[in-house]
Hints:
Pfam families: NMT, NMT_C. Keywords: Acyltransferase, Cytoplasm, Transferase. By secondary structure, the protein is of the alpha+beta class. It has helices at about 15-25, 35-45, 95-110, 125-130, 190-200, 235-240, 250-255, 275-285, 300-305, 310, 375-400; strands at about 5, 15, 65, 85-90, 120, 140-145, 150-165, 170-180, 210-215, 220-230, 270, 290-295, 320-325, 335-340, 345, 355, 355-365, 405-410, 425-435, 435-440. The protein is about 25% helix and about 25% strand.
Amino acid sequence: MSGNNSEDASGEPTGKLAELLKLLKMNGNDVTKLTQSQQKEMKDYKFWKTQPVPKLDESVSEEGPIDRKKTPEEIPNEPFPLLAEFEWCTLDVTDQQQLEDIFVLLNENYVEDRDASFRFKYTREFFNWSLKPPGWKKDWHVGVRVRGTGKLVAFISAIPVNLNLRNKLVKSVEINFLCVHKQLRGKRLAPVLIKEITRRVNKYDIWFALYTSGTILPSPVTVCRYTHRPLNWDKLLEVGFVHLPPGATKPQMVANYALPKKTTTRGLRPMAPKDVDEVHALFVKYQSRFDLVQDFDKEEFRHWFLGGPEQLNASEDTKVIRSYVVENEDGKITDFFSFYSLPFTILENPVHKELGIGYLFYYASDADFGFNDRFDKEATAALKTRLCQMVNDACILAHNAKMDVFNALTSQDNALFLEKLKFGPGDGFLNFYLFNYKSFPITGGIRDDKSYDVERRSNLGVVML
């Protein structure tokens, strides 16, 4: 890092470098753990300097759009140029062969852990759920193929979302599944993919986007930490997902994470189509406490939490989303929670080939609705008690569905139950970004030392896949 950066007599950084390091520390990132390529990227951010995003050392004085509002007519009709050996394509995810192309590309080239031991194992059912919500556009499933062979070597997607940022509606898209074939990652395809999906979204008169990254880019609106609750500790040890702590024995660890076979919440049952209206109203009221949320209409709510017609009748092996409600003796629904399945492929293990992973999705509870302040001591205690019971039952249900670990971020009110329910802090952090929109910082549920922030919790109410 160069430019206006320097060190004082004690060797401590000053100037913009010091400001950047302070920001990274506040966001829970350790700059000393960045790879050389990430450190180089932080020096110049050549691509992101050209985009409407806040600079890393920029102080936001007012929330709102960055670029002036354009019109779709001002946006070029032609796609951005590619190298001669490549060509653009629009993927039709209703076509089984084209869906298979996405499936193969992501399962062979998408995110791996740092040790290259695990990789997301996306399923066709998962894509049908995640890429086709109400209002989805075929034009927003963008690919790059090798000219001549037709092989899909890059992909990016967008889906429509209505964001609510501190009671301001922001019509946006959610960007996801950016993937470039491993052998082509020096071709600068990723920036062109981002520019092309931006162009296509702009043609629909949408100018803002929400996206996430495990790496630091200009400039996160919030940062959350990944947490993991072992459900099958024995298997997790065998595949290297966990390690035996000093002084502990394997039987002790298995016993420590053991769960009952049956749930304990009275009135707990799977969510049904008839519940949509009541659960949606509960959900909207609960979400209103957070600074940044996604506004779901009832059609969107039905899709994301019931999964569409094919998921309602899906077998346990192919079910992606699972949603449950708590109905009291008077027939009122007081609570709701959901989690989805996205397994890992285990890359190098002679015995195990797959790791079952459950992800806490959205939830809602009326436990603290009778209080004016969610941070009131009694309100906090009431919500904590309810969430601990609900999420513990979610872990039991996930374990019974043959999942090996249950993941959650430090977003929402999660900090209230993470430690009690034995969710261990993971190595990864997820940075949330807004494209073309400045926002004041949003708490992410972690303190400066990266521990769970039980007092402030998080004001982020968005969960991204």
